[in-house]
């Protein structure tokens, strides 16, 4: 599942240099005094871990920075314009349409003749007035690749531009133009009344695609301290921190679940994430709040892990254990429901096509099964008899892990 949004981005052009001559009471036509143009704003992308989806952009068509101001008389410098910052989720890839990109155009010379007609020409000679600066983006594996996107019913070829992989990563995505120099700057002993100045650079503009990859194929979901990270470590190559207290995991850990097989089509690998613990009221911002629910939204398949801590298993009778597990299950589903209803309204408003949480495939596992006596297990098994796909697992003895892997493989292959 991919969250994708096309967007037109334009940086601000540099302001033109001014053509002007000093006029005073005594001097009808004095020396040149046209000021330089101001710099146009750039558009800068910034990764923000508090943003989880691209839905802020789904109703939007354009992001624009302002053009720099034209230079003024009396050698006044035109105003520089501010850069525009765009906050995107960590993990956003950015692509740019090849056909719809206008690169930066260097400064040119211009003049305005007696009839008020403007003429432009390319500057010659050596000075840095017209130099086009190159702009550097961090190279990644995808550098140099292209991809087709559909845009208003047609197919658009886009090239990979950059990827925001860490919180606070920043990339200039469209550079604003530098201002042109005013005619004051072109005066010389042989050229005392220059009637020409520079245009500003015209800025980068183009059609871009923001693409947010899924966080993971599988998300492990459940209350704090119930063994999600332990499960991740036995399913995948990951070795996340495991500890006997709640909220050990604050950001999802990712691991690769590998399926080996004799035939090529049996071999596969998937990304699994353990999601920070869910608690009652999380959908209203309690605990880690809704940030983790947004992580869940970026998983294809959910594994809901239900378990109690070892003291609860030791001290309580079967009936109480069943009650607690059922209550936990109810609460997890409740939090997912509340979050989904809230986000649905928002999504509807903006017309994003998103797979709702309730339509995601899910598996329910009863964790820490090694801590249950046979009698307790029987009770729990009969209570969860009608819950689809519920079964015991243990990250310690590996009970049920092979079953879980097989079920995941089936689901992932078919979805
Ligand atoms: N006996 C037993 N203990 C387990 C099992 N899985 C996890 N534990 C223990 O339960 C405690 C919590 O395990 P974690 O894997 O850190 O749990 P978590 O769900 O990731 O916890 P948070 O990140 O805090 O939400 C640790 O002390 C683990 O050793 C299991 O299958 N059996
Ligand atoms: Mg954890």
Structure keywords:
6-stranded mixed sheet, alpha/beta, binds guanosine-5'-triphosphate, 415 residues, coiled coil, Spo0b-associated Gtp-binding Protein, Chain: A, single chain, GTP binding, 6 helices, GTP-binding, Rossmann fold, binds magnesium ion
Explain what this protein looks like in three dimensions:
It comes from Candidatus Cerribacteria bacterium 'Amazon FNV 2010 28 9'. Its main location: cytoplasm. One of its GO terms (molecular function) is magnesium ion binding. One of its GO terms (biological process) is ribosome biogenesis. Keywords: Coiled coil, Cytoplasm, GTP-binding, Hydrolase, Magnesium, Metal-binding, Nucleotide-binding. The strands form four sheets. Strands 3-1-12-5-9-8 form a six-stranded mixed beta sheet, with no helix packed on it. Strands 14-15-13-16-17-18 form a six-stranded mixed beta sheet, sandwiched between helices. The chain has about 425 residues and is of the alpha/beta class. It folds into two domains: about 210 residues, GTP1/OBG domain (Spo0b-associated Gtp-binding Protein, Chain: A, Distorted Sandwich), CATH 2.70.210.12; about 200 residues, Rossmann fold (3-Layer(aba) Sandwich). Strand 14 and strand 15 form a beta hairpin. The protein contains six helices and 18 strands. The relative contact order is 0.14. Helix 4 runs parallel beside helix 5. The chain binds guanosine-5'-triphosphate (GTP) and magnesium ion. Guanosine-5'-triphosphate binds next to helix 1.
Map the helices and strands:
Elements: E1 3-10, E2 43-47, E3 62-64, E4 84-88, E5 92-97, E6 109-112, E7 118-121, E8 146-151, E9 154-164, E10 170-174, E11 196-198, E12 205-212, E13 216-222, H1 228-235, E14 253-259, E15 268-274, H2 291-297, E16 299-306, H3 310-315, H4 318-350, E17 361-366, H5 374-383, E18 390-392, H6 401-414
Parallel strand pairs: 1-3, 2-4, 13-15, 13-16, 16-17, 17-18
Antiparallel strand pairs: 1-12, 2-10, 5-9, 5-12, 6-7, 6-11, 8-9, 14-15
Helix pairs in contact: 4-5
The site of guanosine-5'-triphosphate has 24 residues, from helix 1.
Binding site for GTP: 247-251, 274-277, 394-396
Main location: cytoplasm
Family: Belongs to the TRAFAC class OBG-HflX-like GTPase superfamily. OBG GTPase family.
């Amino acid at each position: 599942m991919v969250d994708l949004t096309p967007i037109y981005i334009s940086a601000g052009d540099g302001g033109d240099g001014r053509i002007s001559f000093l006029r005073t009471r005594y001097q009808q036509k004095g020396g040149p005094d046209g000021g330089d143009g101001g710099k146009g704003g750039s558009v800068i992308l910034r990764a923000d871990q508090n943003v989880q989806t691209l839905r802020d952009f789904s109703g939007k068509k354009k992001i624009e920075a302002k053009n720099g101001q034209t230079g003024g008389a009396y050698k006044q410098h035109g105003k520089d314009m501010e850069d525009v910052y765009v906050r995107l989720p960590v993990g956003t890839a950015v692509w740019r349409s090849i056909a719809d990109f206008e690169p930066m155009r260097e400064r040119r010379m211009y003049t305005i003749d007696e009839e008020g007609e403007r003429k432009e020409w390319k500057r010659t000679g050596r000075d840095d007035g017209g130099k086009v600066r190159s702009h550097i983006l961090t190279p990644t594996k995808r550098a140099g690749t292209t991809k087709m996107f559909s845009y208003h019913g047609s197919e658009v070829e886009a090239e990979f531009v950059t990827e925001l992989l860490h919180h606070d990563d920043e990339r200039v995505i469209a550079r604003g133009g530098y201002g042109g120099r005013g005619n004051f700057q072109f005066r010389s002993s042989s050229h005392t009344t220059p009637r020409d100045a520079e245009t500003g650079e015209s800025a980068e503009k183009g059609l871009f695609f923001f693409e947010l990859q899924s966080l993971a194929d599988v998300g492990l979901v459940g209350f704090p301290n119930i063994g999600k990270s332990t499960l991740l470590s036995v399913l995948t190559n990951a070795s996340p921190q495991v500890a006997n207290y709640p909220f050990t995991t604050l950001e999802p850990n990712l691991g690769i679940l590998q399926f080996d097989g004799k035939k090529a089509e049996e071999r596969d690998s998937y990304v699994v994430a353990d999601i920070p613990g869910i608690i009652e009221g999380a959908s209203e911002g309690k605990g880690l709040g809704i940030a983790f629910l947004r992580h869940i939204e970026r998983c294809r398949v959910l594994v809901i892990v239900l378990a109690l801590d070892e003291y609860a298993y030791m001290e309580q009778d079967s009936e109480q254990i069943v009650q607690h597990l059922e209550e936990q299950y109810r609460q997890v589903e409740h939090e997912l429901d509340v979050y989904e209803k809230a986000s649905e309204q928002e999504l509807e408003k903006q017309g994003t096509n998103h797979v709702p949480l309730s339509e995601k495939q899910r598996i329910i596992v009863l964790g820490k099964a090694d801590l249950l006596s046979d009698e307790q297990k029987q009770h729990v098994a009969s209570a969860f008899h009608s819950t689809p796909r519920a079964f015991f697992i243990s990250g310690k003895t590996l009970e049920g892990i092979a079953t879980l892997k097989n079920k995941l493989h089936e689901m992932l292959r078919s979805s």
